[in-house]
Design brief:
With about 375 residues, this protein is α+β, with helices and mostly antiparallel strands. Among the domains are: about 170 residues, Potassium Channel Kv1.1, Chain A; about 80 residues, CREB-binding Protein, Chain A, CATH 1.20.1020. About 55% of the residues lie in helices and about 5% in strands. Strands 3, 4, 5, 6 and 7 form a five-stranded mixed sheet that branches. A hairpin with a 5-residue loop joins strand 4 and strand 5. The radius of gyration is 35 Å and the shape is rod-shaped. The structure holds zinc ion (3 copies). It comes from Kingdonia uniflora. One of its GO terms (biological process) is response to hormone. Pfam families: BTB (PF00651), zf-TAZ (PF02135).
Length: about 375
Amino acid sequence: MAQGGVDSSWSTALPGASFNVCFDLRMGEDKTSDVAHALEVSTSSPCHNDNIPKPPPLPVAACSKPKVKLLSFSYVPKETMETWDKLFMEGYGADVHILTEDNTIIPAHSSVLGVASTVMRNYVTQAKVKDGIRYIKILGVPSSATGIFIRFIYSSCYDQDEMKNYGLHLLVLSHSFSILSLKRICINVIEQSCLTTENAIDVLLLARQCDAPRLSLICLHMIVKDFKKISSTEGWKVMRKSNPALEQELLEWVVERDSKKQELIKKMEEKKIYLQLHEAMEALLHICKDGCRTIGPRDKLLKGSQIACGFPACKGLETLVRHFSVCKIRVPGGCTHCKRMWQLLELHSCICNEPDYCKVPLCR
Ligand SMILES: [Zn+2]
Ligand SMILES: [Zn+2]
Ligand SMILES: [Zn+2]
């Protein structure tokens, strides 16, 4: 039997369903390489130095959809969906038997399967026929997941909790068989309910293999953000061994994030210094022009500390000015306080826009 499909082993933890899963989706009687090809999506990602792009927003309808049972959103009459659901459940007139992982058989109809997906059509067409029944195998995912998958093909019905439990498996199936409506639902459910720091690495790998770029980006953001926690998970350890290139890529993202953070801190520091200087300049002008508390221009008499001062830098500057007026060294490079005062005076004289009337010492 020719086999095609995903060949990736991950330990996967889902909320509500803790299990170790080895996704090795295998489809019996499948001689085409369609599925294998579809899954051979490059796991390498563009290595650029920009920030990780933000995942695009979901369409409004899709955002609210997964929270509500599908039936209430459908324009198809309830009875029609029930008929299709019944056809799946009862397998009336089935001409295909789908063999699942635990050897259970799901009866189905070649016409329904074939109409839903050309991949499935090829698959069914090439299946072995015995007594008028075609036999196909879908292995590598739990039989429950296969059941949910086939039911969806019939009636688009699904159970929200089942979808959460088997979201990752169903993503593989819907991608492999090109059932795009189900794939979209799976991606939404995984994004909103299944993605955790524990399985972020596995989901990232899966998202890349199943060509789900938005989900990949969401995982990437999560990994970079929660790197410390995620890098100690089992998923990370497994990935390190099996996919060192991905580890390298993720580490680069983290390094870049850190350097951006450092840059931001530096910018904020610079801004802080600039603000302090600005305040000092304002206070200097205020002291030399109006005077403040005990210090002021020579032509003005001050009434002690009665004047309420709104300049935050004033008090410190007052002390500095006082020191400057009495310091014996008072040469640039001499006393550190005087040096600072010189710098402030120099800076003021550079930026002063009315030097002719200015009362700041040495302004002109
Ligand atoms: Zn003041
Ligand atoms: Zn001094
Ligand atoms: Zn001036």
